[in-house]
Design brief:
The chain is α/β, with parallel strands linked by helices. The chain has helices at 18-26, 56-71, 126-145, 160-165, 180-183, 185-198, 221-235, 260-266, 279-287, 299-302, 306-312, 324-327, and strands at 33-39, 76-81, 98-99, 108-111, 114-117, 122-123, 151-154, 203-207, 239-243, 271-274, 293-294. Helix 6 runs parallel beside helix 7.
């Protein structure tokens, strides 16, 4: 599987373009592509040139992308993204971002005018929560109209769903805070809303239960992520993907004892792990039963035919011009990596 990779190549208005269609077409040999994180609303998107899925223009922009993948025989699901407190006020006309509680992320935000310190978010009122759940449902309907094969809820990496899950960022005393059951309530309501659109067999979730991520942490990860596993088991989502970074992982995540064994003991559906895997490590973890699949992220940047390279035992092309080429506009470092066998 191809893991979600933010690349920042959308047109103004967060509209996907022809270059993005070519990028995903090149990688359609993956068992399944999980798209780059895609904003469900203006309020939820705080990354320059990242795509959205909240309006008709964005739906129209995504249609050639999904068609390109399908024309090559591939499958692609859309990752639904609300960044919560990571959205800088510069994206919101100076208004604060929305989060579970009035907290401030560490470090800096990427804004259209450069890196700036994060600012304090505002705590979501009950009407904000209801509206945001509706935004997720609208995005799910738009993803269906755009031709995707399903959706994934981004519940990881210190973004909004994660901010509700973890006690370090969820300081609420109402029905959305306190106990693990309450802190999973927002995640449950969002999943129920998008399952109502797609059916549980076309809905998945990404979680990052291992250590702090973008300042988002919990003193008892086993309790909260065990409860999250019970929710997704009850709802019957199609698969759970876990981000399990090593010491050099992105998002400032800390390496701690992994939680995949706990989640696998509760959630009986397919479990997908994502980390800095080699092909041999991936095969071993699937063969041992630790997981059912591996999603590869950064290797897919410079290896559009990664699945074929793994199949034949070929070397992987290294990422070049990294991380500069990850997020800058233009085709360089995006669609100019050659395949083993030219098309």
């Amino acid at each position: 599987m191809m893991a979600p990779l933010t690349r920042g190549r959308s047109d103004p208005g967060s509209v996907p373009n022809a270059m993005m269609a070519e990028y995903y077409r090149q990688r359609a040999g993956a068992g399944l592509i999980i798209s780059e994180a895609t904003g469900i609303s203006v309020e939820g998107l705080g990354w320059p040139a990242a795509p959205g899925i909240w309006n008709d223009a964005q739906v129209a922009g995504w249609k050639p992308v999904t068609q390109a993948v399908h024309d090559e025989g591939g499958k692609i699901v859309l990752q639904l993204w609300h960044m919560g407190r990571i959205v800088h006020p510069d994206f919101l006309g100076g208004q604060p971002g929305l989060s579970a509680s009035a907290t401030t992320a560490p470090d800096h935000a990427h804004t259209p005018t450069g890196r700036k310190p994060h600012e304090q978010a505002r705590a979501a009122a009950l009407e904000d929560i209801k509206r945001t759940v509706a935004d997720y449902a609208n995005a799910a309907r738009n993803a269906k109209a755009a031709g995707f094969d399903g959706v994934q809820l981004h519940g990881a990496n210190g973004y909004l769903v994660d901010q509700f899950l973890r006690a370090g960022t969820n300081l609420r005393t109402d029905e959305y805070g306190g106990s693990p059951q309450n802190r999973t309530r927002f995640m449950r309501e969002v999943l129920e809303a998008i399952i109502a659109v797609w059916g549980a067999d076309r809905v998945s979730i990404r979680l990052s239960p291992n250590g702090m991520s973008q300042g988002c942490d919990d003193p008892d990860p086993a309790s909260i992520f065990g409860e999250a596993a019970r929710v997704v088991q009850e709802l019957g989502v199609s698969f759970v993907e876990l981000r399990q970074p090593g010491p050099e992982g992105t998002f400032g995540q800390t390496e701690v004892p992994q939680q995949d064994g706990l989640i696998r003991s509760i959630y009986t559906g397919p479990l997908v792990l994502n980390s800095d895997y080699t092909a041999e490590e991936a095969a071993a973890d699937v063969a041992s039963g630790r997981c059912d699949a591996i999603s590869f992220g950064r290797p897919y940047i410079s290896n559009p035919d990664l699945a074929e390279r793994i199949r034949v035992g070929a070397e992987w092309a290294p990422n070049t011009n990294v991380p500069k080429s990850w997020y800058l506009p233009g085709p360089e470092g995006y669609i100019d990596y050659p395949a083993l066998v030219p098309a």
